[in-house]
Amino acid sequence: MQLTSTDGATFALRPGGYQYPDLDAPGDWDANWLVVRGEVRTAGGESWTFDDPSLTTWEAGELGEWLRAVAAGRVEPAEDPGDEDLPAFTEPNLAFSVAAVAGERTVLRVHLSAEAVARRPGGRGCGVPLSLGWADLLAAAEQWGRDLAPFPAR
Q1: Tens digits of pLDDT across the chain (154 residues)
Q2: Considering the entire predicted model, what is its pTM?
Q3: Hey, which of 6, 11, 52, 106 has its CA 20 to 30 A from 133?
């Protein structure tokens, strides 16, 4: 999926495969880690990528459901990704929150730290705000679902 903000910032996230593709242990956490590729560009032009086992298959599914809820206007703005209404991921290097809602536009915040900023100049954690329409969010959620289809929970 790719999220493109009105100010030129972008965030793309794609599953690259299972961290342990040959592991045959149904229901086991290790069998369900996904390596994801993130591509980040801030409104100021800073850009970097990351490849890391940041999400389990279950968490990746929760992200899609959450994006659909945001697109439907059912998620209230929150200060940080620790809020109960936000998707909670085991690895803290990737998180999402809603910063603001105005009409049918949402400012989605992508929170990045640790491995997700290792290639960023200075390597500091950050939040990348993305101003998006609800249709854009729904399209991203649907694309995320298609991207995940080859990687079901095992």
Answers
A1: 999 999 999 999 999 999 999 998 888 999 999 999 999 999 999 999 999 999 999 999 999 999 999 999 999 898 765 555 556 799 989 999 999 999 989 999 999 999 999 999 889 999 999 999 999 999 999 999 999 999 999 9
A2: 0.91
A3: 52
Token pair in block for residue 38: 């993130």
CA distances from 111 to 19, 35, 76, 81 (A): 22, 18, 17, 8
- Alpha-carbon distance 81 to 91, whole Å? 12
Q: Are 8 and 43 in contact (CB under 8 A)?
A: yes
Strands (E), the chain: 2-4, 10-18, 33-41, 47-56, 94-102, 105-112, 126-133
Residues in the chain: 154
CATH number of 2-148: 3.30.2450
Query: Where along the chain do its domains lie?
Result: 2-148
